[in-house]
Amino acid sequence: PSANLEKLQEQIHAVLTARHGREDYTVIPQEKALEVLGSVLDVITFAVGALGAISLVVGGVGILTIMTMAVAERTGEIGLLRALGAQQQQVLMLFLGEAILLSALGGIAGLVMGMAMAQALHALIPALPVEVPVFFAVLAESTAVLIGLVAGVMPARRAALMDPVEALRTE
């Protein structure tokens, strides 16, 4: 049997007021409670997304810094490669590959740590369903590799455009 929700709330309100003698309670329908819970979850989802975005920027800056230092430290090696006939594209691909590998390993480490934390949370709270969807794991790893590629372009391009003679002279 279905009842009019507003009429039911009024009846509950009348019964509770009669029993308590005053209005010291609040009647909230389940739909309203679920709506509030949904808005709270939306805020939490936004906060987690913002933290993820900040982490991606920090990771990108870290890879950019590491790759810039790698190019600076290996100037002589780059000059030797170019002097022995390596093309600019080969040097570019060498450093881009290194940046992608670095970011892929960082992404895998992040996934492993995230999965470990999820399992630890599940061990603490067995009733909490914990699942890491494959789609999101692949999306996270792909994003890490893309960040590595983007962050590695500038240092790799700098390495590829080095003059072999000048690079060998600095060694």
List keywords for this structure.
171 residues; mainly alpha; 6 helices; 0% strand; rod-shaped
Structure description:
Helix content is 82%, strand content 0%. Helix 4 runs antiparallel to helix 5. It is rod-shaped and about 95 Å long.
Largest sheet: none
How many beta-strand elements? 0
Order of helices and strands: HHHHHH
Fraction of residues in helices?
over 70%
Low-confidence stretches are none
Report the structural category: mainly alpha
Mean pLDDT: 91
Range of strand content: under 5%
CA-to-CA gap between the ends?
87 Å
State Rg. 29 Å
Number of helices: 6
Structure, briefly:
Helices cover 82% and strands 0% of the residues. The chain has 171 residues and is mostly helical.
Compile the SSE list and pairings.
Blueprint: H1 5-20, H2 30-73, H3 75-83, H4 88-124, H5 134-160, H6 164-170
Helix pairs in contact: 2-4, 2-5, 3-6, 4-5
